[in-house]
Structure formats: structure tokens, C-alpha cells
Amino acid sequence: MLIHKKLAREEKRLGGSLDYVRHILKVSRRAFFALARCLHLAEYRREAPPEVLAVAGMVGAMRQDCGTCVQIAINQSKQQQTDGDVLQAVLDRAPDRLPADLATVYGFATAVVAGDDVKAHELRDKVQTRYGEAALIEIAYALAMGQFFPTIKRTLGYAESCAIKPPTV
């Protein structure tokens, strides 16, 4: 089937299992195609620099994931030419090793996922001033989608398939 071949190619490109997506396809084609429509949000990039979206996406994935989705986020970011030192600093939760602008994005994303509205509000203004309103929307998408896939996996019982080894840059 064409869909299964495409999923196999995506697994190779992403460097992680999409067994949970196959499960969705098997149980409900309609649900699978609804999920496929969401992928546009995960890939939407127009204004924000790739490293900004990498930071936001990784923070989101790290909030919800056991490792595999974080590794996929790292792999995708590397494909976008994001500097490995940036990715490693985020993975290590070491914003002090990030350039100032990216440290602000990291702080903002971390505040959003932690529900710290006061800090998020303070940093949102800085992020919006630096990158613009359209980029802020892309950051919101990256942060939300970073949490989206791990949440689906965990809900469907596919988090057990996550790698034991920690993600690497």
C-alpha cells in the first residue's frame, strides 16, 4: 500500500518509529487523514529562523516525551541546518550556553509549557519584538506540535516503544 511505503520513508527520514501512526491507520482511515492534516502545522516555517523553531519544538517534545520524539525533533532540526551546539544546549537544559536571543526563546517556551503565565508574558514581548508576530505564531505551532505527537503516542500506549537510550545530537 502506498501509505505504508510513505510511512517507511518518513521513519527513515525522521529516525524514529511511526508504529502509532500505522495503528491509527489500521483502526480508522478517517482518523489517520485527520492526523495527516495536522502535519502542516508541524512543518509550517516562513518567518522564524530554523534554530528558533528547533528550540521551541524541542522544549515541547521534552515536556511530554520519553526520548524518541525528542530524537526526531533533533533529527529534523539537523536537517534544517540547526547548529549542533544549540541542540545540545537545549537537550542539556542549559540555556546559558545558548546565544541570548535563543535563550530568551528557550525561557519563553519553558514558561509556556510550565504554565508560568507571568514569565511567559514578560518573555513573549521580547520574542515578539525580536522575531515578529508571524514568527510568534510559528513558535506557538512548533511548541504545541512538539507536545502533540508524544501525547498521541502516550495516549495510545505507544510510549513503551520509546528508546531506552537518551536522545543524542
The average pLDDT score comes to: 93
CATH topology: AhpD-like
Report the CATH C-level class.
Answer: Mainly Alpha
Rg, nearest Å: 16 Å
- What do we call the CATH homologous superfamily? AhpD-like
Query: Shape, please?
Result: globular
Low-confidence runs (pLDDT<50, min 5 residues)?
Answer: none
CATH architecture: Up-down Bundle
Give the ordered list of helices and strands.
HHHHHHHHH
Q: Regarding quaternary structure, how should these chains be classified?
A: single chain
Tally of separate helices: 9
Distance between the termini: 33 Å
Give the strand tally. 0
Name the helicity range: over 70%
Q: Which structural class do you get from the secondary structure elements?
A: mainly alpha
Write down the domain tally. 1
Main beta sheet? none
Kindly estimate the percentage of residues that lie in beta strands according to DSSP.
Answer: under 5%
Write structural notes for this entry.
The protein is mainly alpha-helical and 169 residues long. The protein has a single domain (2-161), classed as AhpD-like, CATH 1.20.1290.10. It has 9 helices and no strands. The chain has helices spanning 2-14, 19-27, 29-42, 50-64, 68-79, 84-91, 100-114, 117-131, 133-156. α4 packs parallel to α6 (84-91), α4 runs parallel beside α7 and α7 (100-114) runs antiparallel to α8 (117-131). It is globular and about 45 Å long.
Strand and helix layout:
Layout: H1 2-14, H2 19-27, H3 29-42, H4 50-64, H5 68-79, H6 84-91, H7 100-114, H8 117-131, H9 133-156
